[in-house]
Sequence to fold (340 residues):
Amino acid sequence: MQSTRWKQRPPGSNWGDFGPDDQIGRMNLLTPHTRLRAIREVQEGIAFCLSLPLDFPGGNALFQHRKEPKFFHERRGEGYNFNFKLSNVCECFTDVVSDDAVIMYTQYSTQWDGLGHVGQMFDANCDGIPEKVYYNGFRGGVELLGPDDTTGGFGAKAIGIERLATAGVQGRGVLVDLERLHGRTRALVGYQGLMAALDGQGASIQEGDFLCLYTGFADLILEMNKKPDSEVLARSCAVLDGRDEKLLQWITDSGIVAICADNFAVEAYPARPAEGDHYPGLPLHNHCLFKLGLNLGELWYFAELAQWLRTHQRSSFLLTAPPLRLPGAVGSPATPVATV
Ligand code: UVW
Fold:
């Protein structure tokens, strides 16, 4: 199999399987059948917000390259378009109107990683020289354009987050309660740990499910009240072991459409060292975003949902979690909703 963009695909990848120009990867496995199955999870009509307030974690101590949202306001007349009296437009008007604008790092808080978030240096055209490549062979400098690229403007001209938005991100969520097993102790969870957690809950995963991981990390962030202590955070709560090949193979085989966690990167970051001279620093991101086109949700907030599911001895729910339909972005803030 080949495409106009690549001659060889990465080992273990599904490039081309959903079509040569596919841009939504594993979300293709969301179908009317999987959505109807998810809707049947709704028995009580109770909804849970799965987002942190988007101005958390606060500051940039969690990740120095992402800063907290900053509001600004457009000028209007002598003042601003905020608390603006419409009588300035027409004396008879009694209205007061406010608009706002925000600079927001798309992955600052509760978010989706788009497929353009992590690629690899990979020799897709078989010329012996690795190039910057993303899911399904889309290229850095060709379709994914940054400030260093001279032509065509900025942004993801393919695999942008707007593609995920139009995929209709709704299906069955299955919450794995790692917080119950590990508390807030740092735990590296591989295939065995994940399977043991699922078995312990009596939960099973089916094709088209969203795998959700509750670790308590977002609760800790909230408790830190916008003054995150990066050292404490770095040694707290469960993370997936992205170097566990058995776990990666299970992700491939399981048919899950996404992994959504309440921690920083779903996986341990930095990951354990690997063998060889060159390897991905974010192995689970490599496997999911780059090889499989499988989105990652991060810094989600599960505390109340997890408590409710514990009390009612359930693990699954209807999940509705669209990103912003923001053309060209590689990630997006999210305000997912779980309905039980
Ligand atoms: C990094 O980019 C380090 O991680 P994430 O995908 O968690 O935002």
Notes: Residues 72 and 101 are 5 Å apart (CA to CA). The pocket of acetylphosphate is lined by residues 107, 113, 117, 264-265, 269, 285, 298 (CB under 6 Å).
